[in-house]
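Query structure, 182 tokens:
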């Protein structure tokens, strides 16, 4: 008799868990927040020391210059993870200005990653804006960019850009602060 109630309890718990997952999957799209504009635990405004405490030394590094002055430090981690810091003025612990990912293993808090369809992203976030329409006179395909800009008083402004291919599959995720675009 105890075995039947055990199976009934397992069945009930399974039904509850399935209902919870279905409710999450069927949730209406919401607006992206600043806390969503993060990839692999890193966001614009994070310090170099924080990134290095998580990922260690980069696999490659270069310095961008404007004239004779170093302005940006660019770190390369593994396959397809690039972090750019603002070092203008000789900052000792510079802050991230932009992050690029072409690596499907690097995930945003909402589960978004390279390789997903942009339609799936639009089912999660309601404020993803479609790119301007291309001039049809140009007979060359260029990767459309879908984007969203988010902000709050504490963390500032962040923009998330999704580069997609002709099939609507994300090829690159680019997250930057208000100064982070070249």
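Result returned for the query:
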């Amino acid at each position: 008799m105890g075995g039947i109630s055990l199976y009934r309890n397992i069945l009930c718990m399974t039904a509850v868990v399935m209902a919870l997952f279905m409710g999450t999957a069927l949730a209406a799209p919401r607006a992206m927040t600043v806390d969503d504009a993060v990839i692999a635990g890193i966001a614009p405004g994070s310090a170099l020391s924080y990134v290095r405490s998580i990922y260690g030394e980069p696999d490659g590094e270069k310095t961008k210059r404007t004239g004779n002055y170093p302005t940006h430090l660019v770190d390369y981690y593994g396959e397809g993870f690039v972090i750019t810091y603002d070092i203008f003025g000789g900052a000792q612990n510079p802050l991230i200005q932009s992050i690029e990912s072409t690596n499907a293993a690097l995930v945003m808090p909402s589960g978004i990653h390279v390789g997903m369809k942009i339609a799936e992203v639009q089912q999660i976030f309601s404020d993803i804006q479609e790119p301007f329409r291309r001039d049809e006179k140009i007979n060359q395909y260029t990767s459309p960019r879908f984007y969203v800009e988010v902000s709050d008083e504490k963390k500032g402004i962040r923009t998330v850009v999704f580069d997609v291919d002709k099939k609507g599959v994300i090829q690159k995720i680019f997250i930057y602060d208000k100064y982070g675009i070249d």
